[in-house]
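Need residues for this backbone.
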């Protein structure tokens, strides 16, 4: 007992030391950042007399504000806007102080659009402000006064260097404050490189437009870039809402299926097995990736309508009445209605509605015949019957894979599509028991919520 108390005491002491160490490190990082920011302000003040107010100053000041308001967030921690273009052009043609003011103005405006922690805001100010000052100073010192190829080459190299410096500065402060995370790994910088190169090209192109066309040209070009940035911002907002909606919709559906699995403990495994068989069959016949995904999703949700049925229908060992069978035959309609109410796209609801139709027209709920039934619904029908016959948790005597295929071939052409029965037979040949009898099929693995949200994020 005493030993246990001693162990807990030293654990508490250790945790307290770590907490105090973290707090001290965070204060130090924020203090260094504030000192650096003060140094940047002093630097800008010293070089300010060399700058002057003109038409370009006004255009770039307005552009700096608009660029900050058009900032968009990608990868959760990285903000992207046209501010870099603005302050590099300010450094090239107005001087380092103007570049610093443009950078600070954009960062302040950006806080109106993206919620930013106080310390992150300070780190961003330091990184952007220092890069702007350094770029403006170096351009004044080494860039040729003639606007020839050498000027644009130096401008491009400096712009790329300042992008890297900005990222490295923010990363250093954030790692010092919060500790290392994958968001600030070198891999992230590499991923950001293509958009960085586009920024460099825009900087060089903007400079050339100003030199060749003048103030009207650069004002028009910046207006186009900022309009495009705003459109990208709206797109990012739309994708964010889509991601949230997809996550909510699938969360509701997954919750319904898990609740159904609690009542009928074959529901989740059966849904996963049908989804896997249906997707593999769609791939085997050469359907597009979109249709393969559609087959997988519809297979996963094909019995969602069972959730609306009474508990007595799902109870094992009970003799079902005529009313029970009528209710069971309504589950495709109920499932389709649930998916439509949740806003799932039409094809999934249609496939759920028609997966119990038969080739001979004796299926339900609409008695469709042959070609009237969607092809993917025919695939799901074959996959469902096969899994029902071969699964250990089925409500009838379990069959071997060979026996089940024989039964499927017996009803091919009347209940099931004969072509898809042979497609499944081809898939099963040479496969092991684990695939042919999907006893270990996992609903969560087939659902793969993270993948579906990534698809929504990608549009």
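Answer:
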């Amino acid at each position: 007992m005493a030993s246990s108390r001693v162990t807990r005491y030293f654990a508490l002491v250790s945790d307290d030391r770590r907490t105090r160490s973290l707090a001290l490190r965070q204060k130090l990082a924020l203090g260094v950042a504030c000192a650096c920011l003060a140094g940047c302000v002093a630097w800008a003040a010293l070089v300010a007399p060399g700058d002057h107010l003109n038409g370009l100053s006004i255009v770039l000041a307005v552009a700096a504000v608009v660029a900050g308001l058009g900032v968009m967030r990608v990868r959760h921690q990285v903000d992207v806007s046209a501010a870099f273009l603005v302050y590099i052009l300010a450094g090239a043609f107005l001087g380092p102080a103007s570049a610093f003011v443009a950078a600070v103005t954009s960062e302040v405006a950006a806080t109106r659009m993206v919620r930013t922690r106080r310390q992150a805001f300070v780190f961003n100010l330091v990184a952007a402000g220092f890069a702007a000052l350094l770029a403006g100073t170096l351009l004044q010192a080494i860039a040729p006064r003639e606007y020839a190829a050498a000027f644009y080459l130096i401008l491009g190299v400096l712009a790329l260097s300042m992008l890297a410096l900005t990222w490295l500065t923010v990363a250093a402060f954030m790692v010092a404050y919060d500790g290392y995370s994958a968001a600030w790994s070198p891999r992230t910088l590499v991923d950001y490189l293509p958009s960085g190169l586009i920024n460099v090209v825009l900087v060089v192109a903007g400079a050339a437009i100003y030199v060749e066309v003048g103030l009207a040209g650069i004002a028009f070009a910046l207006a186009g870039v900022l309009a495009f940035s705003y459109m990208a911002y709206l797109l990012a907002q739309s994708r964010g809402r889509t991601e949230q909606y997809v996550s909510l919709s699938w969360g509701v559906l997954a919750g319904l299926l898990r609740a159904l699995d609690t009542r009928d403990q074959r529901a989740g495994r059966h849904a996963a097995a049908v989804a896997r068989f249906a997707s593999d069959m769609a791939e085997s016949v050469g359907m597009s990736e979109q249709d393969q995904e559609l087959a997988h999703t519809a297979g996963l949700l094909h019995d969602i309508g069972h959730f609306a049925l009474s508990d007595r229908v799902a109870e094992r060992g009970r003799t079902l009445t005529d009313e029970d069978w009528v209710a069971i035959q309504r589950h495709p309609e109920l499932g389709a209605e649930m998916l439509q109410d949740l806003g799932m796209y039409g094809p999934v609801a249609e496939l759920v509605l028609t997966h119990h139709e038969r080739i001979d027209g004796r299926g339900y709920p609409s008695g469709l015949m042959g070609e009237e039934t969607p092809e993917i619904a025919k695939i799901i029908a074959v996959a469902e019957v096969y899994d029902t016959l071969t699964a250990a948790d089925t409500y009838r005597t379990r069959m071997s894979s060979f026996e089940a295929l024989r039964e499927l071939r017996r009803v091919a052409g009347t209940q099931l599509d004969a072509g898809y029965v042979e497609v499944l037979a081809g898939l099963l040949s040479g496969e092991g028991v684990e695939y042919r009898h999907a006893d270990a099929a996992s609903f969560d693995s087939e659902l793969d919520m993270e993948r579906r949200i990534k698809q929504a994020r990608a549009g």
